[in-house]
Design goal:
There is one protein chain. This protein is of the alpha/beta class. The chain has eleven helices and eight strands. It has helices spanning about 15-35, 75-85, 85-105, 120-125, 130-140, 155, 160-175, 205-210, 215-230, 240-250, 265-275, and strands at about 40-50, 55-65, 115-120, 145-150, 175-180, 200, 235, 255. A hairpin with a 4-residue loop joins β1 (about 40-50) and β2. α1 packs across α2 (about 75-85) and α3 packs parallel to α5. The structure holds ligand C2E and magnesium ion (3 copies). It is found in: Cell membrane.
């Protein structure tokens, strides 16, 4: 029997190994029907440009509406989707859904909003990935410059040559690449000068440490400064306090995301935030 903590997430680590496998199988079965049953949806977290203090884009994040498995975390959901291969269909659905929504915002007058979509390694490594993205952009009539693809740092470090070829193609099409959770993968920034990258997303663990961990502070400052010298933009994730925002602004960070600005919200709530013109 899976336990819940505070009505929140399933505590996988509390389970015996065979219980864990059984639960994962149940989740996998339920997930198999999730797209067809329209149980999956996206929430959007605003991305704010520090210079203009305005929302210039969003990050799309997956959610699952399910009576039993509502509380399965997105990370676990993605992990199970990867193990089962559903990630291919789910990942494709996420890109399309995010672009359909972004097109709606463009049509409402927010004509330069971009959307940032998380891409799993397995999805990115599909031979037809670039073609697939291209087709969805055409179907949804969103110009490619409004799509950003987030690839984690660890992901970018495997199958490097193949990934480089794809990233270059994507860039030629006008699509932006962001490296997600940057700083957690122990790669050097110099290594990334080979990659056609638009943005580094500084992992929230560093932002979280700004005022009680000298190392975190130094790492952030170093990333921002080095990124500037090689013309890569920076986005800080997980900004939760005004002091953190102030610090990042002082360091010349370009964009911020985090609970201090807004949690990820449903599309209609995001529209309300856009009207407020933060
Ligand atoms: P991520 O891409 O690094 O996304 C940021 C995560 O941090 C999100 O968690 C977001 O809700 C959370 N977050 C944002 N601001 C704050 C803050 O100020 N404080 C704290 N504590 N957290 C904050 P979420 O939505 O649970 O997603 C977790 C991870 O799951 C994502 O990390 C991403 O790796 C993955 N994920 C989510 N949706 C998708 C998807 O559609 N496709 C793929 N492949 N992965 C996804
Ligand atoms: Mg992300
Ligand atoms: Mg991240
Ligand atoms: Mg993350």
């Amino acid at each position: 029997q899976a336990k819940k903590e505070g009505g929140d997430r399933y505590q996988f680590y509390d389970l015996e190994i065979n219980e864990k496998i059984k639960l994962e199988q149940k989740i996998e079965n339920a997930l198999y029907h999730a797209i067809k049953k329209k149980e999956l949806y996206l929430v959007y977290q605003p991305i704010v440009e520090i210079k203009t203090n305005s929302i210039i884009g969003t990050e799309a994040l997956i959610r699952w509406k399910h009576e039993k498995f509502e509380s399965v975390s997105p990370l676990k959901l993605i992990e199970i989707a990867e193990q089962s291969g559903f990630i291919i269909d789910i990942g494709k659905w996420v890109i399309r859904e995010a672009l359909v929504q972004t097109k709606k915002w463009h049509d409402l007058g927010h004509s330069s909003m971009f959307v940032s979509v998380n891409i799993s390694t397995i999805q990115f490594d599909q031979p037809n990935f670039v073609e697939m993205v291209k087709n969805i952009l055409e179907e949804t009539s969103v110009p490619p410059q409004f799509l950003e693809l987030e690839i984690t740092e660890t992901n970018a470090m495997t199958m490097v040559e193949e990934k480089l070829v794809k990233m270059r193609k994507l860039k030629e099409m006008g699509i932006r690449i962001a490296i997600d959770d940057f700083g957690t993968g122990y790669s050097s920034l110099a290594y990334f000068t080979r990659f056609p990258i638009h943005t580094l997303k500084i992992d929230r663990s560093f932002v979280n440490g700004i005022f009680h961990d000298e190392n975190a502070k130094t790492i952030i400052t170093t990333i921002i400064n080095m990124a500037k010298t090689i013309n890569i933009a920076t986005t800080a994730e997980g900004v939760e306090t005004p002091d953190q925002l102030k610090f990042l602004q002082g360091q010349g960070c370009d964009k911020v995301q985090g609970y201090f600005i807004s949690r990820p919200v449903k599309s209609d709530q995001l529209e309300a935030l856009l009207k407020e013109k933060i």
